[in-house]
């Protein structure tokens, strides 16, 4: 029986980091996008429609964020792009409210 090589500790930590980065930062990006879109749509639609549309678009954004996050090879690029996107969406949500 041949022993299979177990993954190294660094590899396991990079996978854990990727999971935390994608799901936690993705959630915060979705949150700030939802707040921003709700403020933008409130002037165009009724309040309930604005909230529903903002939530729906934000959930689609979150799904795309997670899929693209797992397709990205470089953790450094993923970290930079996610952090910049979070900062932009945070700034947009603060600026609109």
TrEMBL record:
<feature type="transmembrane region" description="Helical">
    <location>
        <begin position="15"/>
        <end position="38"/>
    </location>
</feature>
<feature type="transmembrane region" description="Helical">
    <location>
        <begin position="76"/>
        <end position="96"/>
    </location>
</feature>
<feature type="transmembrane region" description="Helical">
    <location>
        <begin position="50"/>
        <end position="70"/>
    </location>
</feature>
<keyword id="KW-1133">Transmembrane helix</keyword>
<protein>
    <recommendedName>
        <fullName>Iron transporter</fullName>
    </recommendedName>
</protein>
<keyword id="KW-0812">Transmembrane</keyword>
<keyword id="KW-0472">Membrane</keyword>
């Amino acid at each position: 029986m041949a022993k299979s090589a177990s993954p190294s500790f660094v590899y396991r930590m990079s996978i854990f980091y990727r999971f935390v980065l994608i799901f936690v930062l993705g959630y915060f990006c979705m949150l700030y996008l939802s707040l921003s879109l709700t403020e933008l749509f409130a002037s165009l639609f009724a309040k309930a429609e604005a909230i529903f549309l903002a939530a729906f678009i934000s959930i689609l954004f979150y799904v795309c964020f997670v899929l693209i996050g797992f397709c990205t090879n470089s953790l450094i690029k993923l970290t930079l792009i996610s952090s910049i996107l979070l900062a932009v969406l945070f700034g947009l949500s603060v600026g609109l409210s």
